[in-house]
Design a protein that fits this description.
The complex is a heterodimer of chains A (167) and B (401). Chain A is α+β, with helices and mostly antiparallel strands. Helix content of chain A is 26%, strand content 38%. Chain A has helices spanning 7-25, 29-33, 48-53, 65-78; strands spanning 42-47, 60-62, 86-99, 104-117, 123-137, 144-154. Chain A has a six-stranded mixed β-sheet with strand order 2-1-6-5-4-3. The longest helix of chain A has 19 residues, at 7-25. The two termini of chain A are 24 Å apart. Chain B is an alpha+beta fold. Chain B is built from eight helices and 21 strands. In chain B, a hairpin with a 2-residue loop joins strand 18 and strand 19 (302-312). Chain B has two domains: 49-151, 3-layer Sandwich (Rieske Iron-sulfur Protein), CATH 2.102.10; 171-388, Naphthalene 1,2-dioxygenase Alpha Subunit, Chain A, domain 1 (Alpha-Beta Complex). Chain B has helices at 32-43, 166-170, 175-181, 202-208, 218-222, 317-330, 339-351, 383-393, and strands at 16-17, 23-25, 49-53, 62-68, 71-77, 83-87, 102-104, 108-109, 116-117, 123-125, 147-151, 154-158, 188-198, 227-234, 240-246, 272-277, 281-286, 289-299, 302-312, 357-359, 396-397. Classes of the chains: A alpha+beta (167), B alpha+beta (401). The interface between A and B is large, with 36 and 40 residues.
Chain lengths: 167, 401
């Protein structure tokens, strides 16, 4: 961790990671969306192959706040009842965190997602790396971190199943 | 072999196909021995198989690897700008030559004994050849090329000895649609991939990808997305062509960002176009998405699909950006209107492990004649493909001598 990160900010960033994991592992899409900045935010989920080759296409390409909200609508309203349910467990490991300006940080972390289909055994969905731009909002006791941008770069060259939930 | 399968297939006696043309025996979806027969008769037989597009390897030295059934392929662009397809195997002891999915090389070197191959497959160097067998000639040991042909950059291969010429195999009636799908001239630019494995037999995947009744797609209804007039056409050798006008989708107020489903293309009369080639290639142009699905039959219960997305070389920056966000979010294994399809591939595979038949209903007018003329929304468009499959596999119909 860079020395520029204060203890309060570190704590807020950790709480953000925790909130993100908790939201997805509980299947709470509204809580997932709430980890992003409410005005301007983006989420990309892209294969390491595309990322490495500079190919822009992603698996999920939410380049504005409206897209993030629309993803929530699709998972919870449009797709309800059409997919085989699966639960996930996300595990993350902080790798770096550096100041990117006033109350803003660039952070990376490793992730692993375990998945369990209903009635099935637990397997690895994929591992990968989060590359984040994080905003710190509020002051004092009210300090809170949100994602301005989260880029989930997943390692699997071929995913083991179709995907419903964000990584 | 699945525990649910009721008839063991030995690969010797042909399965018996029901007399009614709208019934498909479900036992063919869960049979490991049958898959071995399909590899021989279809995937390594007298059929063309789509393995890529030249836009995936735009520069000299670019390559990608792919599999035809279990056979590893190496697709490379040579210094003469020709795209060739080789068996991805060193001509010395058979070692897999290239391990990467894609990249750019000046030449291909086998690490085992350092045999070095030029981009055109020529064996350029092989250390210690003075001690090789008396009949060894370096010029005889170039990489082995697979018979290949192209249509507007679409790369097809065949391992069969009696495969018809490509254009004949595609069929005149399929060409206009395929041409429109490939941007009119095939000058495409790769945007990227979504790659996924489905727990589904390749025939189950193929039977349910492409066009199907929109009842499945709640998204279409919520977005007030009505399909326009169109047609569905089949060829005798199992291809299906589909075209429909595209009416603008309003989003119905459901989306906060309706710009995602804007249609910026110039030819709305061909807004939705699908070409499905036997045995298992689905290609579509839907709105501004150009999507070629390169599929690999991995086993009787695993199908791998590489969804490759493209722009056209002449696109404006703005149109490319629109294609990127629409392609990423619309039609893939996590797409707004296609994730349900992916779910169906896996569920239908599970359901197909039961005895009995998959029954086709909508559009069936005869129980004895394979339909040649079907309406836009009929599910009978798949039946000529099933008939072609039955014949290629040598399965007799019930009562047939």
């Amino acid at each position: 961790m860079s020395q520029a990160v204060t203890a309060a900010h570190t704590s807020a960033i950790d709480a953000l990671h925790t909130a993100y994991v908790a939201a997805l592992d509980q299947g709470d899409m509204a809580a997932w969306a709430a980890t992003f900045a409410s005005n301007e935010a983006s989420y990309f989920c892209i294969s390491a192959e595309n990322d490495r080759r500079g190919l822009p296409l992603a698996l999920m390409y939410d380049d504005c706040r409206g897209r993030i909200d629309d993803r929530v609508s699709f998972v919870t309203k449009v797709w309800a009842g059409t997919y085989q349910p699966y639960r996930t467990r996300h595990f993350i490991q902080r790798l770096s965190c550096e100041s990117a300006g006033n109350n803003q940080y660039r952070a990376t972390s490793g992730f692993m997602i375990m998945m369990t289909p209903e009635g099935g055994a637990t397997t690895i969905l994929t591992s990968g790396e989060y590359r984040d731009l994080i905003d710190i909002q509020g002051e004092g006791d009210k300090v809170r971190a949100v994602f301005r941008e989260r880029r989930a770069v997943y390692d699997a060259d071929v995913l083991p199943r179709y995907i419903v939930f964000p990584f | 072999m699945s525990a649910h399968s009721t008839h063991a297939y030995t690969g010797e006696a042909p399965k018996v196909w029901p007399a009614k043309v709208n019934q498909i025996p479900k036992e063919i979806f869960g049979d490991a021995a049958l898959f071995e027969e399909e590899l021989k008769k279809i995937f390594y037989g007298d059929t063309w198989h789509v393995v890529g597009h030249t836009a995936e390897v735009p520069n000299i030295g670019d390559f990608k690897t792919f599999d035809l059934g279990r056979v590893p392929l190496l697709i490379a662009r040579g210094k003469d700008n020709q795209v060739r397809v080789f068996f991805n195997s060193c001509t010395h002891r058979g070692n897999q030559l290239e391990t990467s999915v894609s990249g750019n090389r000046k030449e291909f070197e086998c690490p085992y004994h350092r045999w070095l191959f030029s981009l055109d497959g020529t064996l350029a160097a092989c250390p210690g050849s003075k001690e090789f067998a008396p009949d060894f000639k370096q010029e005889n040991f170039g990489l082995v090329e697979v018979k290949t042909d192209q249509y507007l950059g679409l790369i097809l291969v065949t391992m069969g000895k009696n495969t018809p010429p490509l254009k004949e195999w595609l069929g005149e009636s399929a060409l206009p649609t395929l041409t429109a799908l490939l941007g009119g001239d095939g000058r495409l630019k790769l945007l990227g991939y979504q790659k996924v494995r489905y727990a589904s037999n390749w025939k189950g995947y193929n039977d349910n990808d492409g066009y199907h009744a929109p009842l499945l797609h709640t998204g279409f209804r919520l977005l007030n997305w009505q399909g326009g007039k169109g047609f569905q056409r089949m060829t005798e050798n199992g291809h299906v062509i589909f075209e429909a006008e595209l009416k603008p989708a309003t989003g119905n107020g459901f989306l906060k960002d309706p710009s995602l489903i804007a249609f910026k293309g110039s030819n709305p009369e061909r807004g939705s176009v699908i070409t499905q080639l036997f045995p298992m290639t689905v290609m579509t142009k839907h709105m501004d998405v150009i999507n070629l699905r390169f599929a690999i039959a991995r086993s009787h219960e695993v199908t791998e699909v590489h969804y490759a997305y493209f722009a056209h070389e002449d696109d404006s920056e703005e149109l490319v950006q629109h294609r990127i966000r629409q392609s990423s979010n619309l039609l893939g294994p996590c797409g707004m209107v296609s994730m349900e399809d992916a779910a169906i591939f896996q569920r239908i595979h599970i359901g197909n492990q039961t005895p009995g038949f998959a029954e086709f209903q909508k559009g069936v007018t005869s129980l004895t004649e394979i339909p040649t003329d079907v309406k836009q929304n009929d599910e009978t468009g798949n039946l000529p493909r099933w008939e072609h499959y039955r014949k290629v596999m040598g399965f007799k119909r019930e009562g047939e001598q």
